[in-house]
Every structure is written in C-alpha cells, then in structure tokens.
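User: Predict the complex with manganese (II) ion.
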Amino acid sequence: MATVRKVKDIIEPIYVTEGAGVLLRRSLGTQRLNYLDPFLLFDHFGSRNPQDYLAGFPMHPHRGIETVTYVLDGLVDHKDSMGNAGTIGGGDVQWMTSGSGIIHEEMPKESDQGIMQGFQLWVNLPAKLKMTQPRYQEINSFEIPEVKNDDGVLVRVIAGEFEGVNGAINEIYADPEYLDVYLPAGTSFEQTITRGHTVFAYLFEGEGIFGGYETDSLEKVSTIQATQLIVLGGGDVVKVHTNQEPARFLLMSGKPLDEPIVRYGPFVMNTNEEIQHALEDIQNNTFVK
Ligand code: MN
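Assistant: Here is the predicted structure with manganese (II) ion placed in the model:
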C-alpha cells in the first residue's frame, strides 16, 4: 500500500548576506539544518530593492557539488572558467556541475520588472564524481515542459518526471526531481517519489496542506503558510492540497549519498585532506583542471 509522506520538519528561512553583499533567505545549509542528503544548501533571493542584490556574486570557485539556479523574475549575468557566458532570466534554469572545479560569476541585474527573484540549490556529488569534468546546462524557460490541468494546476518539470512528462534536465547523479508547482485554491497535487529518496518542498507563495491526512484517524494536518521549507518524511506519495488560498511551491527530491561530507564554503568534499588540496589548488593556480 502506498504511504503518504508526512511533514517531518518545517524550517523558517533566515536572512543571510552572501557573495559581495546579496541579501537572501537561507533555509538549508544552516545550523538549524546543515544537510538534507543529497541537498547541501537552499537559498531564495528575492527583492524589490536593487541594493539587496546588485553586488552579486563576483568570481568564486566551486568543487565537489552541483549548483542549480532557477530565476523567476529579473536577469542574472554569468560567466565561468569553461568559457560560458550569458544571461539567465525569468523561468530559466542553470544546472552547473562543478566537479573538479569551476570558477564563475553570478551577477543579478537591476530589474525593470521591479523585482528580482529566484532560487539556488546545491546538490552534493558522490565521492566517485567529486573530481569529474565540470559540466554546464542552461535551459531556457520555453524548454521546460509544463503540465496544465483543467482545474488550473500548473507544474513546470525542471527535472524528474510528472504525469508522464520528463523534465528538461537529466543525467544528474542524485536522480533529482525539481518541480515548480502552482495550485489554485481548492485543488490538489499528488506525486509518487522513489521510496528512500529525500524530499522537501519550498512553499514561497500562499498556503497549503502538506502530507494529506493521517492514515488512521483521517485527522487533518495543519495549513502551512509561505515562506517555509517543509521536510517530508518516508513513504511513497507526496500529497498537497489547498483550500481558500492558492499555493506555489518547489518540490525537490533526490537519492541520498550516505557519505561523509566536509564543507568549506564553496567546496564540499569527503575529507579534510581534499579540502586542503582544493585550497592549495587555488593558491597554486591549478584549481581549474
Ligand atoms: Mn556560485
């Protein structure tokens, strides 16, 4: 019998300043929740004040991870040590596999829509792929498949699969799922996720009821209001529904690595020696392989 994944933890994002002075809301990769294997970090940047984001993220390195940037509103210029350069804008996704090492820059531009908003997720790489060749995938908004139902439910399939529709991004080790889900008031959403995979939702607009009903008592679980990161527990099916208000959330899942991690800023490896090696590579100018 399919088991509904219930709410295990609710995390209120905290404000942090990153890069050269970008104000953002972090809900994963903090003291409260350091690691949700295989997810290392989750940031939400969003502001109507350019002073909160214009300083951006000038040239910085990464090793041992993948970073996934999803821009909702506004534009972000980027360039990297592999020779990629461009601008990602509303609805676009950049999936960057740092592997052995990449140095890049991510610079939000002043938005003429009045708002800059997006998300960055860090996905860990297993030991055997930490030093893999860097890879970069840029997906334009129009390339992201959308599932629209008659009741107004809209799901953008960034990675993984929803109702038989495959996402735009594939061949990622953690076998991740990344959905952007909009539920109008009075609708519901169901998604089966491989048992044993880690699942979380990031509710950034409206309110919703996560985890369905208690199987035995049919007791209703409480409504969660934006903005919160919701960790879902073990089981098979994710169930979300709305009552009077609509909801918009990201749903992420991935295969846990179950390996030791050592974090040092933008480097995430398995041992202290590997971190030391990354720092030496930076010093010796041998970081980019
Ligand atoms: Mn970066």
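The domain at 7-283 is CATH 2.60.120.10 (Jelly Rolls).
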